[in-house]
Design a protein that fits this description.
The chain has 14 helices and 15 strands. It is α/β, with parallel strands linked by helices and 362 residues long. The chain is globular, with a radius of gyration of 21 Å.
Length: 362
């Protein structure tokens, strides 16, 4: 069954590393955006019942409980098999958490990024490790024991020792799901622009080298596996049964539909994206959909599925051509065959962008 993604791009502050279409916007825009989002959901012709729901952003956990309940009431299928809310640590209260559980949310994704105060202060995050621990216990006490912890390898000032300290906290919290991202350096974040300009703001001059960042990632792979949290996608690790059902839809090219600014959709044939700017989304509330894009092709199927540890299944009819196209990656130790599946090796995961960029037409 298909999934639903709802975008809420509003944040209390813009983190230095963030390259998403989210940020701090005028308060009146937030109210108008919520109204436009409600309208988009009400207009949608629900010809199917979604099994998963994901509220991302931004910080959708900052939404007033009444507004959140109203929005969720417009999505059929409650209680959903999995319903995730992205949340900024340090902002969870008992009343809010109770309202989330009552609204049908059964999974929370915590944007922790680091448990080390010196690293957090340079990102714009305001929580502490102790606050995260208290909030996890609060969620568990209200029946939301399925939670994810986001970590970023490559933050300013990060060392092998500080990274191990963050992993210590993950183990202490007994997190069933962990996402580990290597810092992205591009023009879409303040930190990225500063690094590219060889500046020093936001700790840009103290960002670890690419080699150390890769080492930190591999440390996480080994450490998490040691506590039963195994990698199932390049950036995602889980105990058995706690994999993100919703995100697996993206990597397996299953249908999903997005609501809100910059939300993407895929119906199994065509794909489309809503306008990116929250202000433009409100202005175009009657028709926020942007350009329609062509259906996924075989090249995209390989590209997306290779992100998964299980790899991509190759049919007998595809095998000969695929082997020819990827031979140099197999010989170079970046890809490997496992029966009828092609998958990235451990080294290939670290060089996945190289594989994806050069992946020729299959």
């Amino acid at each position: 069954m298909a999934g639903v993604y709802i975008s809420y791009p509003f944040c209390a502050q813009k983190c230095t590393y963030c390259n998403f279409a989210s940020g701090v916007f005028p308060r009146d825009l937030e109210a108008r955006y919520t109204a436009a989002l409600q309208q988009e959901l009400e207009r949608h012709p629900w010809s199917w019942v979604p099994e998963t729901l994901y509220l991302g952003g931004g910080t959708p956990s900052s939404m007033e409980p009444a507004a959140l309940e109203f929005i969720l009431s417009r999505v059929p299928g409650r209680p959903w098999l999995e319903a995730t809310l992205e949340c900024a640590p340090g902002t969870i209260t008992a009343d809010r958490a109770r309202s989330w559980a009552a609204a049908g949310l059964n999974r929370v994704s915590l944007g922790v990024q680091s448990f080390v105060s010196a690293e957090l202060s340079r990102t714009g995050r305001r929580h502490s490790a102790e606050e995260v621990a208290r909030e996890v216990e609060l969620l568990r006490g209200l029946g939301i024991g399925n939670f994810n912890v986001d970590l970023i390898a490559g933050l300013a000032g990060q060392t092998a020792a500080s990274w191990q300290a963050s992993l210590d906290w993950v183990e202490r919290l007994d997190a069933p799901h962990v996402s580990v991202y290597m810092l992205e350096i591009d023009e879409d974040s303040r930190l990225g622009r500063e690094i590219l300009a060889a500046g020093s703001r936001f700790g840009a001059s103290d960002v670890p080298s690419e080699e150390l960042t890769a080492d930190l990632y591999e440390m996480a792979v080994e450490r998490l596996a040691g506590i039963g949290v195994h990698r199932y996608e390049i950036s995602n690790f889980a105990r058995p049964g706690f994999e993100s059902r919703h995100n697996l839809k993206y990597w397996r090219l299953e249908p999903y539909i997005g609501f809100g600014a910059d939300a993407h959709s895929f119906d199994g044939g065509m794909r489309w994206q809503n306008v990116e700017s929250p202000a433009e989304y409100v202005e175009r509330a009657a028709s926020p959909r942007g350009e329609m894009l062509p259906a996924a092709d075989e090249e995209e199927r390989f590209f997306v599925s290779l992100r998964l540890s299980e790899g991509v299944r190759v049919s007998d009819s595809e095998r000969l051509q695929v082997e020819t196209n990827v031979r140099h990656f197999v010989e170079g130790g970046l890809l490997e065959w496992s029966g009828d599946r092609l998958r990235l090796t451990s080294r290939g995961v670290l060089l996945s962008n190289e594989v994806f960029q050069e992946f020729l037409h299959i």
